[in-house]
Amino acid sequence: MATIFSKIVAGEIPCYKVFETDRCLAFLDINPVVRGHVLCIPKQEVDYIFDLDDDLFCELHLFAKRVAKGLKKVCPCIKVGEAVVGIDVPHTHIHLMPLNKPGDLNFAHHVEMSADELRELAARIGAAIE
């Protein structure tokens, strides 16, 4: 059975797309921990990040690095944090979050954003990626 992320990749479920390549996709989390919370996934459905083949593992991390640089240009922060949890959705994903204080990487906290705010932010981050 396909995961929600595989359905997003297939275009069956919409997302606030930030950036994509042939093998990776970045989109905004619809329940963000902080403004600018981005998910980076391989388009191939693999549950556990350490089960990715070496090439895709490296490609996903380099993709996330590229997205993080664009994210930092748009969302003022000290650093962009990275987290890999992998419990809630059985499809490898990297969380990228703008951080200004240690508590910003707290999955128990969420911020409210409207669909228009998410759409505009996704476009701005995508435009900032080189």
Count, helices: 3
- The parts where pLDDT drops under 50 for at least 5 residues are none
What structural class do the secondary elements suggest? alpha+beta
* Largest beta sheet: strand ordering: 1-2-3-5-4
Measured by DSSP, the beta-strand proportion falls in 15-25%
Largest sheet: 5 strands, antiparallel
What is the C-alpha radius of gyration, as a whole number of Å?
Answer: 14 Å
Task: Write down the overall geometry.
Answer: globular
| Residue-averaged pLDDT | 96
Order of helices and strands: HEEEHEEH
Give the helix level as a range of percent: 25-40%
| Amino-to-carboxy terminus distance | 35 Å
Number of strands: 5
What does this structure look like?
The protein contains three helices and five strands; from the N terminus they run αβββαββα. By secondary structure, it is of the alpha+beta class. It has a five-stranded antiparallel beta sheet with strand order 1-2-3-5-4. Strand 1 and strand 2 form a beta hairpin. The chain is globular, with a radius of gyration of 14 Å.
